[in-house]
Write a structure and sequence with these properties.
The complex is a heterodimer of chains A (233) and B (409). Chain A is an alpha/beta fold and 233 residues long. Chain A has 7 helices and 10 strands. Chain B is α+β, with helices and mostly antiparallel strands. Chain B is elongated, with a radius of gyration of 32 Å. The chains are: A alpha/beta (233), B alpha+beta (409).
Chain lengths: 233, 409
């Protein structure tokens, strides 16, 4: 198993109140899966995906990544883990506004220690892959939503991560553009990239081979788990 | 992330906020410029002192001068050959050599111009000069100078006052000392002081041939002696003792005063005053830099809160908190170092402008040049960089400690 979560609990503290957001989550994801996590807003699906993607190190329980326990790592170690293993695609793209497309895409490589000059070819290559060949020097703010999401996908895959985390990747796009982005994800998945996405669009979820449903911080159904151990919760 | 990538990012974000960056830079610029200016002038004074009087003077020699000023009769000479011989005997080994210095510039004399007796200023020439412009007539030839012919040139203002026009003055005579000179040329008026602040040799009323002016007994007597010392000899101390000796034993001791003008002492006094001014201005500059530093801090805090999203994105794609802190710290340092280097240039320029004006104010023919050293440059660089580091560290830490989940939510 690539990703294995065991009895993961998450609390948010707000003054004296504390909210129990995730209850004893157990989730295992294998290499090459295309997994959708669905649920109402506020159900905790984004919180879960942040933990899976090493964005949130503040949780209780166990998280084994490729057999390694990572629940006790430091903040800097999480940064390195993110940089080497995971690419992110966000609902609102999260591109740096005053930096060009190429400068946005190359960021993960720069933080991995490569120099600006060495990564140029790789940037051109991934832009080609997402269908944005020749857009290197454009500014993201001059591009359409679909194009911006492609840039952010290019940034997510540029460092050859082991898996992609996509939080509502089609949430800000119309249905036609959504489908284009989904096709891109499916193409990447067929080429071997593991993808975990959060969505509340049933059409998007329907195209994923495994769907996990969350209600009020609990996993209530898991299509990929039906055939084997049922009572695992 | 390499340093070149960090610098690129820093420059990009500073360019994105041009006005804000510029205003922040100005504070640093003023502080650094003030320090560099005052240091440049201060170093210039020190250097002038050493070049002229110090043990590290350029020629390896130090020279001092002792003047004689007669109390009433201007024809009395303060020094003759006997005085020189006496000094050599009395102060044997304490100086290298001594000789009578024939002044050639700005001598004060009485002269008969036409029919009137006047006090005038005179400079002496050995050959034709390019430093004056003639209004009428011509300059004496080289041959006339070396043969000691009694020819003179007159200032335009004097000629006009005496004869109405410059042309009329040609062919008239002036009597200086016991010699009668014929006026062959009239030249344009010049200022009494040069741009460097010294007395202008060509600002005088008459220009006479040196060969003729100092002849006969006046060749072996004069009103100035020059003492030359080797390195390491106590020029100032010995010179004042020589002056004291002359006051008692000089050939004209009863008819006037022997004076040793201690330039070194004057400059030392001035240097001391400069030190006070320097520390005062440095103090003000330190306050200015402190305020500028607060400006930098303010700007960086604004920048950090404006770019929260960017920080989140960078953290998400694998920047460590250390990377983020470094990015903002470098941005602050780039800002202040830019101000520091511009301030250095302004300060160096200002020092070179002010030094001559100051020399003029001191007078006495002191020449001052600003001296901006590598040390000043390093000081400007170091100070501005540390202001950036000191005042950038808190905003940078705030940026690094931002909660990623809160940003991305």
């Amino acid at each position: 198993m690539m990703i294995e979560l065991n009895k993961v609990n998450k609390y948010y503290h707000n003054g004296q109140n504390s909210y129990h957001v995730l209850h004893d989550i157990a989730l295992a994801v294998d290499q090459g899966e295309l997994l959708a996590i669905i649920g109402e807003s506020g159900s905790g699906k984004s919180t879960l995906i942040n933990i899976v993607g090493f964005l949130d190190e503040d949780f209780s329980g166990e998280y084994f990544y490729q057999g390694q326990p990572i629940h006790s790592m430091t903040r800097s170690q999480f940064s390195r883990l993110r940089n080497k293993n995971v690419g992110f695609v966000f609902q609102n793209f999260k591109l740096i506004r005053d930096a060009s497309v190429a400068e946005n895409v190359e960021l993960p490589l720069l933080y991995a220690g490569y120099s600006h000059r060495k990564v140029r070819d790789r940037v051109t290559e991934v832009l080609q892959k997402v269908g944005l060949a020749g857009y290197e020097d454009q500014l993201p703010q001059n591009m359409s939503g679909g194009q911006q999401q492609r840039v952010s996908i290019a940034r997510a895959i540029v460092a050859n991560p082991h898996f992609l985390i996509a939080d509502e990747p089609t949430g800000a796009l119309d249905s036609e553009t959504s489908q284009e982005i989904m096709n891109l994800f499916k193409k990447l998945n067929q080429a071997g990239t593991t993808i975990i996405m959060v969505t509340h669009d049933p059409r998007v979820a329907a195209q994923c081979e495994r769907v996990v449903k969350i209600i009020d911080g609990r996993i209530v159904s898991d299509s990929g788990r039906k055939e084997d151990n049922h009572g695992d919760q | 992330m390499g340093i070149s990538e960090l610098l690129r990012t820093a420059f990009r974000s500073l360019r994105a906020n041009r006005k804000r960056s510029f205003l922040t830079i100005i504070g640093i610029l003023i502080g650094i410029a003030a320090v560099i200016t005052i240091l440049g002038i201060g170093n210039g004074i020190t250097k002038t002192m050493y070049d002229q009087f110090g043990n590290h003077s350029k020629t390896g020699e130090q020279t001092t001068e002792i003047f004689f000023a007669s109390t009433n009769d201007s024809t009395v000479n303060g020094f003759n050959q006997e005085d020189i011989d006496n000094l050599k005997r009395q102060f044997a080994g304490q100086f290298k050599s001594v000789r009578i210095e024939h002044e050639t510039a700005n001598l004060n004399q009485t002269a008969m111009v036409g029919m009137t007796n006047k006090r005038i200023s005179v400079s002496l020439l050995r050959s034709p000069t390019k430093d004056i412009k003639l209004v009428a007539g011509h300059q004496p030839t080289r041959a006339q100078y070396s043969a000691g012919k009694p020819v003179a040139m007159m200032k335009e203002a004097v000629a006009k006052k005496q004869y109405g026009t410059a042309q009329n003055a040609l062919g008239t005579t002036v009597e200086v000392g016991k010699t009668t000179y014929r006026v062959v040329g009239v030249y344009h008026n010049q200022a009494a002081y040069t741009l460097e602040g010294g007395a202008n040799k060509f600002g005088v009323d008459l220009l006479l041939p040196k060969q003729l002016y100092y002849q006969g007994s006046s060749a072996t007597s004069g009103n100035t002696i020059k003492l030359i010392f080797d390195q390491g000899q106590h020029a100032s101390k010995v010179s004042s003792r020589v002056a004291k000796y002359l006051k008692k034993n000089g050939s004209a001791a009863s008819k006037g005063l022997y004076q040793y003008e201690d330039m070194e002492k004057e400059l030392k006094q001035f240097a001391f005053q400069m030190k006070i001014i320097t520390s005062f201005i440095s103090f003000i500059a330190a306050i200015s830099l402190f305020i500028a530093g607060i400006g930098v801090m303010n700007m960086m805090y604004i920048s950090v809160s404006e770019r929260t999203q960017e920080i989140g994105i960078r953290l998400a794609v694998g920047a460590t908190p250390g990377n983020i802190m470094m990015q903002f710290l470098i941005e602050a340092v780039v800002l202040t170092v830019t101000g520091g280097l511009l301030g250095f240039l302004c300060g160096a320029g200002l020092a070179h402008l002010i030094a001559p004006l100051m020399a003029h104010a001191i007078g006495n023919g002191v020449h001052l040049h600003a001296h901006v050293t590598i040390g000043s440059f390093l000081l400007a660089f170091g100070t501005s960089a540390s202001v950036g580091l000191i005042f950038g560290i808190l905003p940078a830490r705030q940026a690094a400690n931002k909660n990623l989940i809160d940003i991305l939510r």
